[in-house]
Write a structure and sequence with these properties.
By secondary structure, this protein is an alpha/beta fold. The chain has 8 helices and 11 strands. It has 2 domains: about 130 residues, Rossmann fold (3-Layer(aba) Sandwich), CATH 3.40.50; about 70 residues, Arc Repressor Mutant, subunit A (Orthogonal Bundle), CATH 1.10.10. It is about 45% helix and about 20% strand. The strands form 3 sheets. Strands 2-1-3-4-5 form a 5-stranded parallel β-sheet, with helices on both faces. A 4-stranded antiparallel β-sheet has the order 6-7-8-9. The protein has a two-stranded antiparallel sheet with strand order 10-11. It is elongated.
Length: about 240
């Protein structure tokens, strides 16, 4: 996926200089002159990097930096400041800018700084994806933990040995708490077929599953029977 960069600069010559030289890095460029519109674009779009001038019409780059950082903590931002505006540079960093460049700047330095921020953005993006994947691979409800990646179930932190089908049956029910499934629906979702006369297969697996995860299989509180309909997963049954 091509990186997309937002340039917020009201000096047309400087904006063109930045745009032309960053195009060499194979990125997509958006350019905005007015601060208020730039802020809206920054909040509504996913940019790998924002190059942000301090002095802008409507709203300052410092205010944009602060507002963007509050809404998107991971957004990479490089501030563009005048050569003698040390205060702006300090404020920019304090408000959350990742880096700053003073005008006039070297084209090679610009490219190097941008490459550095893009590398950091890629690493952070991958870390966030890995974290989300890890969260999606695990389902934790009270004293019950279902590890999808390793096909492992724990009850009160003790590993419970389930067959592959028992695991899939529990995962399906737990993924839809309080939803009632008929035996034929479970056959289709867990076993992958739907034939009348095989409902006893579901009953047998439910009974074996209860024997392994319920405190008292004769009075199940986790996988409950809804008489005349089917079965449901009761999240309150595994509450701490």
């Amino acid at each position: 996926m091509t990186d997309r960069i937002l340039i917020v600069e009201d000096d047309a010559d400087i904006a063109d200089l930045i745009r032309v030289n960053l195009m060499e890095l194979g990125v997509e460029i958006d350019h905005q002159v007015q601060g208020d519109i730039a802020l809206q674009q920054a909040l509504e779009n996913d940019y790998a990097l924002i190059l942000l001038d301090v002095m802008l019409p409507k709203i300052s780059g410092l205010d944009i930096c602060r507002l963007v950082r509050a809404s998107k903590p991971a957004q990479a931002i490089i501030m563009l400041t005048a050569k003698n505006s040390e205060l702006d540079r300090v404020l920019g960093l304090e408000l959350g800018a990742d880096d700053y460049m003073t005008k006039p700047f070297s084209v090679r330095e610009l490219q190097a700084r941008v490459r550095s921020q893009l590398r950091k953005a890629h690493v952070l993006s991958q870390a966030l994806k890995d974290q989300l994947e890890t969260q999606q691979q695990a389902l934790s409800i009270g004293m019950l933990q279902i590890d999808k990646k390793h096909h492992q179930v724990r009850v009160k932190n003790h590993v419970v040995d389930l067959t592959a089908t028992e695991f899939e049956l529990l995962l399906h029910l737990a993924s839809h708490p309080n939803q009632v499934f008929s035996r034929s629906q479970l056959l289709e979702s867990v076993w992958g077929y739907h034939h009348s006369g095989y409902e006893h297969t579901v009953n047998s697996h439910i009974n074996r599953l209860r024997a392994k995860i319920e405190l008292d299989a004769t009075q199940p509180t986790i996988v409950q029977t809804v008489w005349g309909v089917g079965y449901k997963f009761n999240p309150l049954g595994v509450a701490q």
